[in-house]
Amino acid sequence: MLANKPKPPRRSLHVKKGDKVVVTSGQYKSNEPREVLKVGSDGRIIVQGVNLRWKHHKRSQQNPKGGRVQLEMPISASKVLLFSEKLGKGTRTKVQIVNGNKTRVGVACGTNFDAAKAAAEAPAKPAKKAKSDKK
User: Fold this and answer.
1) What CATH number should be reported for the domain holding residue 66?
2) Whole-prediction pTM
3) Is 46 part of any domain?
4) How far apart are CA 103 and CA 132, in angstroms?
5) 1 within domain boundaries
């Protein structure tokens, strides 16, 4: 019966990979911003340095010693808020349409999170060289 069960629909989340977030509940609760490493389709995210667990690796040719490694495990996306540099803490977000595009905007501060991210990712274009007249 479980083999025929349809997959749950993909949830759109208020966070994206690379965002700075603040953990609002649980053992890792703080106002310190941390980076989102991975966003899952089931509403769970992996945040840098949060929900650390020990993974035991068996000996193999690639890892002849074996041993234990500490890894970040997923947490619910509802436990984090986007970090606003203007406020210095986490803020809730709403979606606004700006120039025909949906953007995430901080409720308390009005920070446009998608515009800041796009400006940071856009590479600076080098100045064009003037063409000389050849005769």
Assistant:
1) 2.30.30.30
2) 0.73
3) yes
4) 44
5) no
Residue 107 lies in domain: 8-119
For 88-120, how does the pLDDT look when each residue is reduced to its tens digit (9 = 90+)? 999 999 999 988 889 999 998 888 988 766 666
Tokens of residue 24, six digits? 């609002």
Domain membership of residue 126 (yes or no) is: no
Cα–Cα distances in angstroms (integers) from residue 52 to residues 55, 107, 122, in the given order: 10, 31, 33
For strands 52-57 and 44-47, give the pairing.
unpaired
Looking at the 3D structure of the chain, how many domains does it have?
1
DSSP readout, 60-116? Answer: -SSSTT-EEEEEE--EEGGGEEEEETTTTEEE-EEEEEETTEEEEEETTT--BHHHH
Spatial contact of 84 and 33, defined as CB atoms under 8 Å apart: no
